[in-house]
């Protein structure tokens, strides 16, 4: 599991996917999310603007898990 430190209160899901390298661009992040390939805390998330907080765990099909610290 990869850990990513966020210096702010939260990060938006689309931004996180780009930061982690799971998505090459915002469009790629949007496609991953809309295709149901991203789970936040074991629930499929379809909103690119979902606020991700420290302690959340994101699972991306074909990439793995990310924990926000």
Automatic annotation (TrEMBL):
It holds the Pfam family S4_2. Gene3D superfamilies: RNA-binding S4 domain. Keywords: RNA-binding. InterPro entries: S4_RNA-bd_sf. It comes from the Bacteria. This is RNA-binding protein. GO terms for molecular function: RNA binding.
């Amino acid at each position: 599991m990869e850990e990513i430190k966020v210096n702010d209160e939260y990060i938006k899901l689309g931004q996180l996917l780009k930061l982690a390298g799971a998505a090459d661009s915002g469009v790629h992040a949007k496609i991953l999310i809309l295709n149901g390939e991203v789970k936040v805390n074991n629930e499929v998330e379809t909103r690119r603007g979902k606020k991700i907080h420290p302690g959340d765990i994101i699972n991306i099909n074909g990439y793995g898990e990310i924990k926000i610290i």
